[in-house]
Amino acid sequence: QQQDDVNAGLHSFFNACERGMSLLLSFSFGVEANIQHFLNPELLSRVHPLRITIPMLTIDEGRLFLQDVISQARCRDDKWPVAEDLVPAVVNHVNARYALTPRRLLKAAGVVFESGAMDLEDGLISELNAQYVEEAVERGDFDFLDDKEDHE
Prior knowledge:
Radius of gyration: 20 Å
Low-confidence stretches: none
Strand content: under 5%
Number of strands: 0
Largest sheet: none
Number of helices: 7
Helix content: 40-55%
Structural class: mainly alpha
Shape: elongated
Oligomer: single chain
């Protein structure tokens, strides 16, 4: 029912635009052919077969990407309890087991920063560093990165 509601809403919204509209939809179920099962015939009849993908990253690109994201999100006025070896450690651990994608790097960094924020607040650690990432990997915190939605 939710799928029907979403399709009906998108279809109605599309039709209400007098000058046309472009929708950019992102699906994360891993198999491109499944798109036809998620969109209704009214929307499928308007689909343009343009596919935009982000290629796998190299280790250097992964580090730069993650550093840029963190830099944009960081409040400069706050004390920054993050060691310089954190980003390379996250990228290296993801790369050791999986293809480097922006999505996987963001998910891995999210795990580290979320658990790290609690541990910092509780006084269990004084900074986030490569050792903290290593412990997260050993606990299995990165195991969820091998989900089907990340596969081409």
